[in-house]
Amino acid sequence: MVDSTMVSDLNQEEVNDICIKALQDQIRSPSYQHTEAVKWNQNVVETVTESLVRLGYPYKYCVCCVIMQAGLGAGLNIASMCFWDKQIDVNFVVRWESKAVIAVCNVFALRLDNLPPQIMKSDVEENCDGHVNTNGGS
């Protein structure tokens, strides 16, 4: 059992760096391209998840990303909720934008006592099958 006084060893700075790098690497276009947005989104959530797992923390992750066109005056409201242990599980929100795109990544990290302290790169490759559940696209 994990001590209830334990604080998360995963921090906002690490998650920010991972999410922002993934978004910048994927969304290089100077304009929003609806036909490319599904691919951008899939690649971002895959890259962020794989990068988080490679950190070796004993968590299971859920990564969500919203990518929308900027500059249209449209509002964006995102909400999420989880039932979890507030002492050991964590949630991070990372916002990134360019002149053409607004993106928000939401990372849920659920700490598991029975995971090994270090997860090797080979474990990531075996367990990240490249399938992403999205709402829309091909």
Automatic annotation (TrEMBL):
One matching Pfam family: Tctex-1
One annotated GO molecular function: dynein intermediate chain binding
Xref: InterPro entries: Tctex-1-like, Tctex-1-like_sf
UniProt record, GO biological process: microtubule-based movement
Lineage: superkingdom: Eukaryota
GO CC field: cytoplasm; cytoplasmic dynein complex
CDD domains in the cross-refs: DLC-like_DYNLT1_DYNLT3
Family listed: Belongs to the dynein light chain Tctex-type family.
UniProt protein name: Uncharacterized protein
Taxonomic path: Eukaryota, Metazoa, Ecdysozoa, Nematoda, Chromadorea
